[in-house]
């Protein structure tokens, strides 16, 4: 596995790659979560060339915004182009599945196939938000710490691992 930082669209994005074969980008849930799909990448890297990245504002990537879907899609397309990939598989989990679907709709000629894991689908259902806000505001929920602190500051914090 190799890790590096790609300067793209005004942000420094952490990228990991491993394996051989047709390229596949794994997209983790969130938004705002650090990468947690390394174990999945290790299970399939004998079949495909697996890429993972942390979106802006998450983990090892820079904190530079904006933090919206259009910017996320532009970052993904920029990564694909930078890597010289014509077409790739996309596999997303939770929020990442929605990002993968939105990317496939925006750039259909760049996607070989889509793996959609535990997404919320195409809908405009916000009824869940009231329950979420109540739980968050009552501090009833313990927030799990991520493996990498969010929004690391300074160039020293952005040194890639080999």
Write the layout of secondary structure elements.
Elements: E1 2-8, E2 11-19, E3 22-27, H1 38-44, E4 48-54, H2 69-82, E5 88-93, H3 95-106, E6 111-117, H4 128-137
Parallel strand pairs: 3-4, 3-5, 5-6
Antiparallel strand pairs: 1-2, 2-4
Helix pairs in contact: 2-3
Describe the structure.
- The chain has 162 residues and is of the alpha/beta class.
- The protein has a single domain (2-121, 148-158), classed as Rossmann fold, CATH 3.40.50.
- Helix content is 27%, strand content 26%.
- The chain is built from four helices and six strands.
- It has a six-stranded mixed sheet with strand order 1-2-4-3-5-6, sandwiched between helices.
- The longest helix has 14 residues, at 69-82.
- The radius of gyration is 16 Å and the shape is globular.
- The protein starts with a strand and ends in a 25-residue tail after the last helix.
In short:
The protein has 162 residues and is an alpha/beta fold. Helix content is 27%, strand content 26%.
What attributes characterize this protein structure?
Rossmann fold, six-stranded mixed β-sheet, 6 strands, single chain, 162 residues, alpha/beta, 27% helix, 4 helices
Number of strands: 6
CATH architecture: 3-Layer(aba) Sandwich
Helix content: 25-40%
Average predicted confidence as pLDDT: 86
* Tally of distinct domains: 1
Using the coordinates shown, work out and report the CATH topology.
Answer: Rossmann fold
- The portion of residues forming beta strands comes to 25-35%
CATH class: Alpha Beta
The SS-based structural class is alpha/beta
Order of helices and strands: EEEHEHEHEH
* Full CATH superfamily name: Alpha/Beta hydrolase fold, catalytic domain
Shape: globular
Termini gap: 7 Å
Across the major sheet, the strand order is: 1-2-4-3-5-6
What is the helix tally?
Answer: 4
> Quick one: biggest sheet?
6 strands, mixed
Give Rg in angstroms: 16 Å
Taking pLDDT < 50 over at least 5 consecutive residues as the criterion, the unreliable ranges are: none
């Amino acid at each position: 596995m190799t890790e590096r930082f790609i300067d793209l669209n005004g942000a420094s994005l952490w990228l990991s790659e491993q394996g051989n074969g047709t390229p596949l980008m794994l997209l983790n849930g969130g938004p705002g979560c650090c990468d947690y799909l390394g174990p999945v990448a290790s299970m399939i890297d004998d079949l495909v060339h697996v890429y993972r990245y942390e979106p802006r504002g998450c983990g090892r990537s820079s904190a530079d915004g904006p933090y919206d879907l259009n910017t996320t899609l532009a970052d993904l397309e920029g990564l694909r182009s930078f890597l010289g990939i014509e077409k790739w598989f996309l596999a997303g989990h939770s929020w990442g599945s929605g990002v993968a679907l939105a990317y496939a709709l925006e750039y259909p000629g760049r996607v070989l196939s889509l793996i959609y894991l535990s997404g919320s689908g195409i809908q405009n259902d916000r009824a869940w938000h009231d329950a979420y806000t109540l739980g968050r505001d009552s501090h009833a929920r313990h927030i799990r710490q991520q493996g990498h602190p969010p929004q690391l500051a300074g160039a020293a914090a952005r040194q890639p691992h080999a």
